[in-house]
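Hemolysin, Aeromonas hydrophila. Tokens?
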Amino acid sequence: RQGATPLMTRDQLRERVLARGERLFIDFGAVSDQSERKQSRKAVGHLVGLSFDADWVLVSGYKGELRFAPLGGVDDPAFYQVMEGVESLEGQGKRHKRWLTRPPAAEADLPHVAFYLNVNRKISDAECTFPRSRTWSRGERLFCDSPNISLVYRVNLERSLQFGNTGSATPDAKIVRISLDEESAGAGIQLNEDLTWSENIADYLLLDGWARDYATDAIAQDYRSRIEASNTKAAVLKSLPTNLNSKYEHREISGFEVGVTGGVEVNKDGPKAKLEASAKFSQQRQLAYNTQDYRVERSAPSAQKVSFSWVRDQYATAESLLSSKTATVWGMGYDVDHNRIQPLSYKGFVPNLDVIYKAAPDETGSTEFKIDSSVNIRPIYTGIYKHYYVVGAHVSFQGLEDTDKRRRVTVSTSFKVDGNRPVFTGGCP
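Tokens:
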């Protein structure tokens, strides 16, 4: 709410959103003067500990923390998706409200800022429309049903102090942690609820040549998540998952030990004395991997950038999805074996990842963190070729690979972190 929001304290914001169940819509776009808009962003950034480039930000509650949804405009479809997914907390009882306004007991004494970042994008009809036939000009059709990307990233800002001098010593660093884990993650990436197909038949007398072709609804050739820091102030300290094979199922706890202080008096501006760690706290994320048809490839082209790709590895080509190779001319028909396509290939894919950035304890200034989430959409084209040889004929089933009949759809979001915030000096957020 323009004008009112910057006057709130962080505790008041949490009270309104988490305890009362209110949803706040911050509209920077309504501030026409660029200087005033900049000051408004700065005020909100000071309030919540981070800032966004978006002119509209929806603030709601999610699992006991604030959730921010940067929007492209007041008519952004994500606005309605978020509003539909947020449950009103009114009338749910005092015990539930107390849980919502307190961090977990294990993290209660750790000075940190925790929040959720909502990423929503409807995949448009145009982005999932492809030719109806690979062989003939038969127009186009839609290969998806209510496709969308809906992910909820968990972000922690905190300060770690050095504790110990051995290999298990905690780092002396400012920490930004970005996760998609079992406790957050969101609804996932959806292309279709089920797979259907359409048939095209040659409309001319045929002795030898393409007799029929088929177009099956879209699946994901790959899913990709990429996280990047805008400058060298921050560098990747840890990232998961590592490279994983297809058909791999595993659960693991991604732990990170933070050095914390127990005896230094601090106020909202940070500690008055030199910070010294007196203990270490293990902050954990539960990650679940069930790769099924996909292998995981991790890439780190620089100290600031890391990406994870879930690349189709099992039955990765249209040819490999066919249950038959040849048949008599009377055996022509749709031949894609849907048992070779796991549901993860087209619905409810939720990546799990954990990326930890560190910055030097004396690093100042701002760093923007950009998060890209994408899916490479591919329809499945197959065809039947009739072979004629005077004394008889047969048909062959063939998979048709057309890399130009694929389309990557990406949703991007970002947030800016100020290294001068009290939380990075071990003070109260």
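Confidence is low (pLDDT under 50) at residues 1-6, 87-109, 263-281.
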